[in-house]
Design a protein that fits this description.
Blueprint (H helix, E strand, L loop, with lengths): L2 H7 L8 E7 L5 E7 L1 H10 L3 E4 L4 E4 L7 E9 L6 E8 L27 H19 L6 H29 L3 H21 L4 H13 L1
Parallel strand pairs: 1-6
Antiparallel strand pairs: 1-2, 3-4, 5-6
Helix pairs in contact: 3-5, 4-5
Amino acid sequence: MEAAALLAAVKWNADGLVPVVIADARTGAVLTLAYANREALEKTVATKSTWLYSRSRAELWNKGATSGNTQRVVAIAIDCDNDALLYRVIPDGPACHTGAPTCFGEVVALPGAEAAPSGARFAEAMLALASTIADRHENPPEGSYTAQLFAGGIDRIAKKIGEEATEVVIAAKNEDRGELIWETSDLLYHTMVMLAERKVTLDEIGDELARRAAG
């Protein structure tokens, strides 16, 4: 949907507002629930920065303008009833005014409810890491180790993968749990750098793993 069509589609409430769910584009974590009016949405689209409307102050506000904790908006979705929006953002700093990463920090565990499936934290971290690696590839900052790997090309990356694979085996044979976690993380990180260098996505890897799981 084009920006103009999005603006035309929104069903504003009686106060000219629409609720906005703000989520981390890398992890999917919900950061904030706020409101926007038409001007705030227009500014968000134009600047790719989170603009909202404060109901208590009755004014527009730009996330991070005073705190420095900005949000780069990478996508906007509208719900099926056209009366709620989802901003997918790359946050630079905490989302909550308390300094917490998200405004939804307090979790109430419901008796009898199943716990989150094992591996949820792994999936969240892999998505965040993939986003960071992609950003280092497109916008290499000075002094970044990831950027240095990309600059060295596939030979340097492949060499590191070989080294890390060996260290994973050694850690396993040493029966050192902490070392095994550390070295496996190193191996996964360097492998993801190689995938980014060769433009292979996590979804493509996921498709292949799903095919094997089904077998």
